[in-house]
């Protein structure tokens, strides 16, 4: 068999099984959805080409400015949480209820921030975030300061300002709080922010 015959045969097999392996890998991404408090449980959410298109459509509204992108990110988080609900089978309530640990589908701030961070990193890998970089998750409060510990996902704007994307306050599928990290750090766990 000649080299050209082998190349043609490999191309034919590739078409028959749905394209090159790299194309198939790019079409589907699995994200673990944390729930049960502290990521006690993980449910797999597969994001395929349909979600790629949906997120691209949502984020296209954010191309004009960092402010517009933050509003688009809020919509992307809302959509993502609705998809997460489909795999957990439970619509998470806003905030955490004490005593709800180890209940499938219920989420504390560790779960929420982990899930939002995973989404933001997925969007960044897809090249859908033009005005923000994903930063490490951050926290506030440590009981001794009179505040309950609370975690959030974080993004950084081109001017260096860090913003939190905190979906813990809203019911599953609701708009997350997106406020400056500095403002968020000074709040207590009972204070919700506002989208800026």
TrEMBL record:
Source species, domain of life: Bacteria
Name of the featured protein: Transglutaminase-like domain-containing protein
